[in-house]
Amino acid sequence: MKAVLFDMFGVIARVQSPEAMAALERTAGADPDAFWAAYWSHRPPYDRGEVTGTGYWQAVCAQLGILLDRRLTGELTEADLASWSEIDPRMVDLLGVLADRGTVLGLLSNIPEDLAARYEATQPWLERFTVRGLSCRIGSAKPEPAAYEWCVRELGLPPEEILFVDDRAENVEAARRLGLQGHVFTSPEELRGTLETALT
């Protein structure tokens, strides 16, 4: 194994907390169940870069019957970005250890452009990644095969020499079907154990 291809959210960055989710619900002023149904049903085109943030929130609010203006668009966007911005420092430390050992690092993340730009402006550890497969810029998202294939091409390695790490089993299985090694992430400590074995 010569490279590790990381998922971002649920691995390096934390998923939305209950507090952050509640803040989004309050900002929208919608029934929580209806809000999240709309939020996720319109997310794939946003993640793939097919619509802008404004277009995404227009679709969400139209489904909810909410009148969207510039102020609400800005508030929803900011609350959404904040909800995905908490980093696990243990994982950032692990990235540094791997990079210092000469391990090739790649990133494959389902992420909209607004959030990608926020991370690039605030998270210098992104520079440790030789390859950054951001769904909004490569036009495909996990678990679509094209997303993994893009990263494999950019890494320039055979799939079997790449370990893909994701917190979602369905994304890891999609990678394995294309010949990559896979690890379902549960904790930094467990991942360290897997990497110690794979890199020796």
Largest sheet: 5 strands, parallel
- Supply the number of helical segments: 11
Helical coverage, percent range: 40-55%
The helix/strand class is alpha/beta
Low-confidence segments, given as residue ranges, are none
Number of strands: 5
Report on the architecture of this protein.
The protein has 200 residues and is α/β, with parallel strands linked by helices. Helix content is 55%, strand content 12%. It contains 11 helices and 5 strands; from the N terminus they run βααααααβαβααβαβα. The protein has a 5-stranded parallel beta sheet, sandwiched between helices. 30% of the residues are buried.
Task: Please specify the SSE layout and strand pairing.
Blueprint: E1 3-6, H1 18-28, H2 32-41, H3 43-47, H4 53-64, H5 70-83, H6 89-100, E2 104-109, H7 113-122, E3 131-134, H8 135-138, H9 145-155, E4 162-166, H10 169-177, E5 181-184, H11 188-198
Parallel strand pairs: 1-2, 1-4, 2-3, 4-5
